[in-house]
Amino acid sequence: MASSLFLHRQVTRHGCWVFSGVYRLLSRSTSANVVKHDLASFPQDTPTPEGKTEFSRAGIGGFFQQKPVLKNPFLEDALLQGYLRRHLPSKAVYSELLVFGERLVHEVDGWGRECETTPPTLVTYDAWGCRVDRIVTSPAWRRMKELSAQEGLVAIGYERTYGEWSRVYQMCKLYLFSPSSGLYSCPLAMTDGAAKVIQSLGVSGPTDEAFSRLTSRDPGYFWTSGQWMTERKGGSDVGSGTETVALPQSDGSYRLSGFKWFTSATDADMTLTLGRVADRDGRTTPGSRGLSLFYAPVRNQQGMVQGIEVQRLKDKLGTRQVPTAELLLDGLPAYRLSDEGRGVACIANMLTLTRIHNSVSAVAGMRRILQLARDYARHRSVFGKPLKSHPLHIQTLTRMEVETRGAFLLVMDICRLIGREETGQASQLDAHLLRLLTPVAKLYTGKQAIAVISEGLESFGGQGYIEDTGLPAMLRDAQVLSIWEGTTNVLSMGVLRCIARTSGLILQSYFTHTQSLIATDILPSLSGAVRSVDSALCGLKEFLQDAAVKPPGYLELAARDLAYSLARIYMGALLIDHASWKGASPSDAYAALRWCEQELCPVVNNAARGSYKTETFTQDAALVYEESTRQ
Ligand SMILES: Cc1cc2nc3c(=O)[nH]c(=O)nc-3n(C[C@H](O)[C@H](O)[C@H](O)COP(=O)(O)OP(=O)(O)OC[C@H]3O[C@@H](n4cnc5c(N)ncnc54)[C@H](O)[C@@H]3O)c2cc1C
Fold it and tell me: Domain map of the chain by residue range?
């Protein structure tokens, strides 16, 4: 191997003269077999009549692998098209997404790459020593903002042209956009969340203008919003982690002072944030009860930040396109949106939306890597045939495809539910499902995206690891999906809380609806899959009955497995339901079968193994913190 590389280098640089010299050298110092092997790996190297080889002519050899090509992501997505044909069969939607898909390929995807290669920078002082705290973003990032307004990527959710299906339409568009967006999907998520919060609290006073800007299609008027919750003491635990103090002003506004530890897309025009209102003596109420929600424009008329010092931009594993800053709030002018102490409850609407966006980005990343991987498998030949003709390679892609399909249907179902809620058509059951499944989808798809995209990188072999293919950035960016908007464990605990708060009613809705998805007009070929979902549901019910009489710590240890079980069972039911629709394809049925072959209810099996027993925590801790006793 080493000798063949050596040969290659010499031949490439100096042509056949050096080659034959090294060949003579090798002939003397190695066995004849080895030399023959080395020669065989360079079949093109037969000298031409002019005495040159193909390598010397081409400089670096004649073979270049065809790169994976992004094609119109809408046309490439059979499930997306099938889903829309079933639920939103509108010619206008079809043609808009078709045209948008073309725009993504020919225009936007290149900007997305530019956002990655030209990350934002912070200019703290101007040439004359004045503090300016300017976040400089790439032209591509700014074009993304214009495009987002023009394409109505936030506005669609509020115009509601398609009634209860408007959110589905909006999220389908974002799903196509997200992997090409250079992470502009991040500010859009927060912008959408902020608009939703303002709308739900009633648009009035200073938020009137903010709402119309956030939901505008006019690039010159459109605003984006930040969501500043995390402080140094806590992102998950904002109740005890928030130190920001809000000082009331005589005109009814506030001045905020504190330190925000993570603020993404800090080039935003406004933000929603949490703080504690101080009384006349400067005292604040501790815990979540002391938190209120504030709205703050970030910049003044001159475009300068006001009452803010940008301490630095974070140096991150991924999402490098997005400026994420640490901010000192030093008297930031703000308006209180919630009643005093109702901040956490009021920002919940924002989190619902940002978690849905997160899930959309997760499934979009999976779909994009698959589209590229399957294109590559057509053109990359190994062992005498294209990758797509190697059964084991196709099996690997199939597993990724099945994960992606399950995730897509779950996420779209949540978009369907929020669309129903926003148009006043949600039943109690819909409301329960939305509340339960939003964190479930966020936590599950975040993990799926990391796994699927990681596998996807491997499907390009070594090239999947090479930076300027653009592929590694996809994995880096996916890694954040399980962290921001709530980590996997924190959301799993949230699922438990939401079950407890409704005294289990939310679970009843889950069981009723999941059962109904697999109850009627099911394809006979899917009976095995139906049995799997059915038995997983029964197992889950029994588990929950048992868990109800266990010691308090039992469910806490089971929380993540429980959330995974809720996700997998529901995805199985959705896949079966979709495959049984009259317009479904045979692949839809096959995907449902394959999904339901896996362990659908891990919480039952782990309970049977004793994973959640009281002594488990002590044993786990002893294992994790074991120290070596060897000298
Ligand atoms: C790139 C990036 C951008 C971000 N942008 C923003 C932003 O714009 N605005 C914003 O407000 N925040 C932002 N964040 C912050 C992010 O939301 C938080 O980092 C995240 O919510 C986790 O909070 P934490 O860092 O305080 O971790 P911690 O809460 O300290 O968590 C540490 C670990 O403990 C686990 N854990 C915590 N509580 C429990 C529990 N009860 N049981 C079991 N395990 C638990 C967590 O799962 C995690 O694994 C961003 C983060 C990143 C990485």
Answer: 2-58, 503-631
